[in-house]
Amino acid sequence: MHLTEPVVSDDPARLPQPDLVLLGVKLPDTAAAIAALRPVMRPGTAILSLQNGVTKDDVLRVIFGTEAVMGGVTYVSTRILRPGVIGQTGPLQRLVLGEYDGTRTDRVAALLDATARAGVAVEHAPDIRVAIWQKFTFLVGHSGTTAAMRLPIGPIRENPRTRAFLRDVIAEVVAVARAAGVALPDDAVEGALRRADTVPPGMTSTMHEDLEAGRRLELPWLSGTVVDLGHLHGVPTPYNRAIRDILAAYADGPPRPPSKA
């Protein structure tokens, strides 16, 4: 599907009030995006965050209300080719969405239909929290290990010790999810590992790329969230704490050089 006359702007306030807002900024930019969206949100406007993390929608509910927020995750690999142009770098393009109460509402049905007609693989999740945490489980393991070890996934999954570390990181996420009441399947840990085994060996994570490029990291919303929720629910998370603490000095960009006396 192609829009013949798209209406675009770098200021949402200049656009018509929408039926649906798709939020896809990096997590550190969420507050700025919310401020920009306030003028265009109206009663009945839905907002769907396709960001990483499992706490992304909590913030949106506080600002825009529970009824406005849909749940969703996306699987796609892209790069910013130049300002305003996003290039897809792999064949995968999948969207999973649903309401938090599990109902198949008119807005869910309409978005499923529109996405399918655009040629994107899309599915409805009767329990969107499970879908969000399933992606989060893999993402935390993949991003945390590739960034902390400064390696693509191939060498990490092939070395027995680093593979064991990857598995332990994933297992902590699953334990925290279950303590939070999320009904992940029995094979959630092995399922995430199987997914790590199927991606190209040279594949790395956005967080690793951001680290190498000197950009801010989504660390507080990934391994950092696992540590925080683990503390809340009484689940030990030493492996995710190690990743969080190793990368903490880089979370806001490269550390400043020490000042000269």
| Biggest sheet overview | 5 strands, mixed
Q: State the secondary-structure class.
A: alpha/beta
CATH architecture annotation name of the largest domain? Orthogonal Bundle
Note the beta-strand portion. 15-25%
Low-confidence stretches: none
The average pLDDT value, as a whole number, equals: 93
Number of strands: 5
Instruction: Give me the CATH fold name of the largest domain.
Output: N-(1-d-carboxylethyl)-l-norvaline Dehydrogenase, domain 2
The number of helices is 10
Q: What is the 3D shape? A: globular
Q: H/E series, N to C? A: EHEHEEHEHHHHHHH
Specify the oligomeric state. Answer: single chain
The whole-angstrom Rg is 19 Å
Helix content: 40-55%
CATH class category label of the largest domain:
Mainly Alpha
Task: Trace the largest sheet across and list its strands.
Answer: 1-2-3-4-5
Q: Separation of termini?
A: 61 Å
Question: What would you say this structure looks like, in words?
Answer:
- The protein is of the alpha/beta class and 261 residues long.
- The chain has 2 domains: 12-126, Rossmann fold (3-Layer(aba) Sandwich); 129-250, N-(1-d-carboxylethyl)-l-norvaline Dehydrogenase, domain 2, CATH 1.10.1040.10.
- It has 10 helices and 5 strands, in the order βαβαββαβααααααα.
- Strands 1-2-3-4-5 form a 5-stranded mixed beta sheet, with helices on both faces.
- β3 (69-82) and β4 form a beta hairpin.
- The protein is globular and about 50 Å long.
- The protein starts with 19 loop residues before the first strand and ends in a 14-residue tail after the last helix.
- The mean pLDDT is 93.
